[in-house]
């Protein structure tokens, strides 16, 4: 590689390769990703292009390296101290040592095209109280298919089945709902000690899990029935990404502790509706109930302790041209409102690419199915007016049918969000 290639940034190298891949060639052309791999070497030194690589791991390395490069090039915004007076409802506070730097916050809450937001909710079945909400970024959904004792994927397994399995509620053992405990404590105190001061303190307690109400002398003997332990944890998609990457985890460990590949077909649709798996649609469901709703995720009590920002404070969240969430502390607001517009977020996706692996764990061969959208130039009206699927296997490129694509034993699926139907 020459010196210019060595100084090429990862983003530039990736853009150049993608531009070459998207350019229509009239003859056979060989494209090399070596410049891109060389740029990745600054971030992932152990990533060797000449050795066997896992496709999902390579994608993860690429996205994380891009994220690191973008954060390294971040320049904090500078403004006059006098501008602070023009900001409504703001206070000037001294910088705390434990506070993250502006660059660290930018890196943590950068929303790129592959980035979605997962919501982890903790809900009590007894009182339907939403105990907690936790939001985290993701760039790939890792789904584990259902396999039988022979290490094969069960028949008629689909991506929707895998999504339901991933997002189903899991019961937490020996977890006491503090809201249920406070309700029971009020009843217990009213019956056993009749101390109005204690009862009023319990009624006015808003700290719940961090309070010291259990240390009250009249409540130390109060039993904690098992019904307080019916608490469920569940994931849902709070913000769907522009590009949804689904990794079907075919690597598994057998009874002998060996890593094997799960064989079998997992069906996937050309159009995927993620609305049933979003935070506003998902109820608390358990595997044992076969998808039956156990309790609705009511938020009337949770709003008092875990307020979710709405359109009235949406001005604190700005989806900037480069994808930055301006105020990272309002990530939950971004997840709830779907960005800057405040309009209802769309969750319809169209399949654009499929990656299939042949061979065993640690070795084998990858092929890619890619959908090409119709394109008719202004000067040339002979372009295709229909979408076409291609199969790419190293230097071999063939036109394939939708049926061939849907019959693939996919490892990676790429869906693009549809904004207009």
UniProtKB/TrEMBL annotation:
Task: Kindly name one Pfam family recorded for this protein.
Answer: UCH
Query: Can you name one GO molecular function term for this protein?
Result: cysteine-type deubiquitinase activity
* Keywords noted in UniProt: Hydrolase, Protease, Thiol protease, Ubl conjugation pathway
Q: Name one GO biological process term.
A: protein deubiquitination
Which domain of life does the UniProt lineage start with? Eukaryota
Checking InterPro entries in the record gives: Papain-like_cys_pep_sf, Peptidase_C19, Peptidase_C19_UCH, USP, USP_CS
Span of domain USP: 1-418
* One GO location term (cellular component): nucleus
Q: What is its EC number?
A: 3.4.19.12
- Catalytic activity annotation: Thiol-dependent hydrolysis of ester, thioester, amide, peptide and isopeptide bonds formed by the C-terminal Gly of ubiquitin (a 76-residue protein attached to proteins as an intracellular targeting signal)
| Family to which this protein belongs | Belongs to the peptidase C19 family.
Q: What is this protein called?
A: ubiquitinyl hydrolase 1
What are the leading ranks of the lineage? Eukaryota, Viridiplantae, Streptophyta, Embryophyta, Tracheophyta
